[in-house]
Every structure is written in structure tokens, then in C-alpha cells.
Amino acid sequence: MSRETWNQVYLRLKVLLRRAGIENEAGEAGALFEEVFGAGRRDLLLHGDRIADPASTARLFELADRRAAGYPLQYLLGKWWFMEEQFAVGEGVLVPRPDTETVVLEAERLAKAYGLETAADLCSGSGCIAVSLAKRCPGLRVWALELSADAFPYLERNILSSGAAVTPLRADVLQPDGLRLPDALDLVVANPPYIRSEVVGTLGKTVSHEPRIALDGGPDGLLFYRGITSVWKEYLRPGGWLVFEIGFDQAAGVREILAAHGFAALRCLRDYGGNDRVVCGRKRG
Ligand SMILES: C[S@@+](CC[C@H](N)C(=O)[O-])C[C@H]1O[C@@H](n2cnc3c(N)ncnc32)[C@H](O)[C@@H]1O
Q: Residue 8: CA atoms inside 13 Å, Cβ hemisphere, count?
């Protein structure tokens, strides 16, 4: 029977992850250890000489082996955090990324500055944008649209557990016929698939476990920007706002699409890493 202490198990785990090329091996080891042993960093510091339960240790290293093989940490945990909220995630749904905060912050700024009352979050996935926006803007009613049968249950579950004022709708945002939405929306936000089709397969082991439907933006990556702008400008009221998350090199292309559809007040915002991340515009009044 194993006589390893918590500290010894944690160190062995960290070494395994480091050897597998995991960059943030200490953070990930801490998260996996906490998941299995229910003990965080503080507990490890205070009680690191406790003898580790062998069954839990075996379970921990099963997870670690899967992580070392490239399976996403977030799917192993079944949850991830985005702007102070916890979201259920798993195979079939994109893991929320910190860069997406830029979209929420700009949508929140617009909602508050212009007293916006209705919004649609297209390509909602886990619902991280819809839920965070609704929580930050109590006067805003939000509809969250998602096509994937695998992602939709996560969206419903995350809305329910958050208690946010968001209505989930299973829909194709490029053909949104017969939807029960307000006549004219104040705001449309979207983080659509935007990776060029030929690049999707080259994104690395961990991303390869995420759904292709969440990533593939067509031959030039702009398919959804064209489709959404053309379809959803009809759902926006005059003076309403469209806010897109974009890839770091797509600002010019997306601005051009918005301008061609008559949007004004075009702006581009950068994420925390200094990359172009959001393009937004206003439907002419
Ligand atoms: C880049 S992910 C964004 C997910 C989430 N909004 C976020 O920021 O993490 C794009 C999402 O669009 C969904 N999707 C792809 N094609 C769609 C379509 N035609 N209609 C609605 N949703 C679609 C995918 O299933 C995926 O959840």
C-alpha cells in the first residue's frame, strides 16, 4: 500500500505534467489535486504530510495521464471559470477563454451607456457571454442562441445554475426562422467560429478535443461575420449595436463587412494581450 504523503503525490503529479510539456504545471497540478482530494493550496501547505488515500491517488494519476496526453484540463474538471462565474463544460462545448471578456466588457459599456433593454448572444456555447452580460446588466433581457445538440445542454444548465435572465434558444444563427424574439433588438453580440478551415486541424493536441463546429469559420474565417451581419441587421433596431469577437488578424476584414452593410461608429478593441479582439458597429438610425 502506498505511503506517499500529499506533498509527495503533488510533486510527482507536477513532474508528470511538466514532462508532458504542460506550461502551467503547478496551477494544473493544484487544480487536479483539489478536484480529487478536495484540498487546495492552503490545505497542502498546512497538511502536506498527511498520508494520501491510495484509491484517490490512483484516480488522480488516471486524470493526469489523460491531461498529459493532451485532453483539456477543463473537460477533466467538468467546469471552468469566466468573469467570476463557474460554467459547466465538457466535450462538445468550447471552453470559455479570458480574451472573450473584452466582448462582455464592451457590450456592458454599451448597454449601460445607451440604456439598452434587449440583447441576443449568437453562437452562445457554454453561455459565458450571455450569462456574464445579463449578470452585469440587470435591466437587460438576453436571448442565447446555439445550434449544436452537444453544446446546448451546457448552455441550458449554465443559465439555470447562474440564475441569470437569459432565455436559451436552439437555433441556426445563419437561418433563424420562426424564432420568438423581440421585434427589434438593441444589441447583438457574437463570438462565432472564426478559424480558417485549413488551420483548424493544426491548432494543437488540446484544442483538437474541442468541437470543430465551434472553431471552423470557413475558407477565409469570415463566413459567420458575413452571414450574421447580413441576417441580424434585420433583427436590430435602427441605432442598435453589433459586437463581434474576432481573430487577432481579422479586424480589417470584419470592419469592411460591417461598413458594406451600412454600419457606422465602427470601433476595434484590443484584448489583455494587446491583440485586436472586438469589432463593433451601430446600425444607422
Ligand atoms: C467560438 S464558439 C463561442 C462559444 C461561446 N460564445 C464563447 O465565447 O465561449 C462558437 C459557437 O458557435 C456555435 N455554432 C456554430 N455554428 C452555429 C450556427 N450556425 N448557429 C448557431 N450556433 C453555431 C458552436 O457550436 C459554438 O458553440
A: 11
Closest CA to 249 of 176, 190, 196: 196
Chain length of the chain: 285
Query: Which of ligand 1's atoms lies nearest the C-alpha of 194?
Result: 1
- Residues with CB under 6 Å of ligand 1 are 94, 96, 100, 123-126, 128-129, 145-148, 151, 172-174, 191-193, 213-214
Kindly list the domain boundaries of the chain, sorted by start residue: 6-69, 79-283
Q: Which amino acid, one-letter code, is at 158? A: N
- Ligand 1 pocket test: pick from 89, 94, 196, 232 the residue with the most ligand atoms within 8 Å of its Cβ: 94
Residues 6+ apart with CB under 8 A from 284: 238, 239, 262, 263, 264
Residue type, 102: T
DSSP class of residue 165 equals S
pLDDT on residue 252: 98
CATH number of 79-283: 3.40.50.150
Closest ligand 1 atom to 174 CA: 19
List, for residues 23-74, the tens digit of each pLDDT value: 999 999 999 999 999 999 999 999 999 999 999 999 999 999 999 999 999 9
The whole model's pTM is what? 0.96
